[in-house]
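Issue: copy button drops trailing tokens. Both records pasted manually instead:
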Amino acid sequence: MIIPLIIFFDQATKKVALSKLKAGEVVSCCHNVVKLTLVKNPGAAFGILKSRQLLLKIITVSIIVVLAYFLIYFTIIEFCITIALSLAFVLGGAAGNLIDRFRFSYVVDFFTFKFNGCPVLNFADVFIFLGAIIFATNTLF
């Protein structure tokens, strides 16, 4: 299944970021379109709930349980591969970030894009975003 691959890729890239990047350091790559910078994010998206670690863990675990149920439902009962894939992306990304929360009490973010206002991300965030886009596209159209 794809979920373990997402988790492995996410955790492997975070391990490299932690070993190669220093906090506050910015490394430009890909013709300055991508910037690498290590951020230890104790909160959720955009730093919300940063002082509520236990609550954030409980919310994330609850979301993972609900997503797992729907993934099983849409894989076995409804057999809608697009929705199942979107849920797997979100589930894998959420699990990758949850591992960080339990290991470090923060999520390792390490890249951003040149665009103004783009937050520092990790690959778990990318999979969550892609999963949400696939899900929305499939259910709305």
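Record 2 (pasted manually too):
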Amino acid sequence: MQLFVELPPVVLPGPRPMPLVGARGNLIRFLAKPVQAMLRLQRQYGDVAPLTRDDPGWLLAIGSAHNREVLTNGDRFHNLADHPVKLPAGSAAAKFSLSLVNQNGLAHQHGRRLIQPLFAKHRLATYARMTADTTARTLDRLAVGQQLDAHSLCVELSLSVALRCLFDVDATAAGGPSDDLGELVLDYLSRVFSPANMLLPVNVPGTPFRRFLTTSERLGDRVEQMIRERRERSAGDDMLSALITAYASEPDQRSSEAVDDELLGQVAMLLIAGHDTSAHTLAWTLFLLTQHPEIQAALIDEVDGVDVHDHAAVMALPLLDRVIKESMRLLSAVALLFFRRSTDSFTLGGHELPAGATVILSPLISHRDESVFPEPRRFVPDRWLSCSPGPYEYMPYGAGPRLCVGMSLGAQIQRVILVMLLRRFRVSLAAGARVSYTTRGVLMGPLPGMTVDLLARDRGGAPAGKRVRGNIHELVDLS
């Protein structure tokens, strides 16, 4: 994709262009710290604000009306999810872009039709059993009195579950076949959204971009190996088996190589996107529970005795549902949606805007509308006893025709893992912990340092209102 687009000026109040580098500098500065930038732009310029004064190239649009306008008009607003720099043709990094999140129009409809059955109700029941079994083996290694980084634990839990559901491999077995795959996924995620790749996309030895391409090739080779092995054996209950069957049974006029490249892209998307979002959501939820021990205690009481292998039983827990909904509202793992670029002129917030304008939407900021969510910076799970926001007011999984295809599985995984964790431990924020948020691509998660103590369930957690260090106070009222 072309990241920077020169468009005719439109009268739009906004920040001045940066000296020397102009609007490009404003965009790079935004991408470096998008959450802080969105909060500042909305506060200073309102719900429709350009990144650069009078430049319609990139605009932030906040609120349900703008969310609805953009997300329901897929023909006018195309998903702009490609890597921001040109990738070598035929490279694994380029093939990874051949996935549902990058597709538009008929290609997106075709891909969604093939992937949607992976999340059918009967399959969710199978994934619930896989999630419970995998999580139990990970939690068996933990003990009361242990201190650890909450986000690292949640990454381990969610990635192990993703590998089991997608490939039916056991990531909890030391030295098992998935060890290198899990490490490759984490290495890839650390590099794909690196600002250095965008600022210096030079494919020469020693550069961050070359290391990103090398990691992508290693991950691509490993996933292709998994695909080949799965084709050579009987289909199982895992997602990869179902996806291979779906592609094999679908008439396609393209070459087998083109179909295989797309299959690789779809598998990589399912592996990378799903686990990262769940890990962030779980980590934020654990943090919020440490700050509200009375809610954590009530939740511990609720989860006792529930059959974690039973999809319906887990999804029917009312307090658990409210806690996770509120966590995903207050600290949405999806800070902003993939950018949308207009194919035609349009009107937004009373401004006439040209084709080629790119619109930024944010679930995180939209979830702070006081008219929908009173006291929006506070963690109040019981607001969901009476709160019924519309689909464009509360959208942790996006909204409209591009609503996250795997949202049902993500919701289930988060609930099963949290139930199993709270059936063993009470979680308390450790002394000296630092809770700060950061963004990687469109996702928002904790920085290292969110250390927690695993306590016996009959012991009290950290008192509510305990002073927490870190920039989390920019987003959450902990008073």
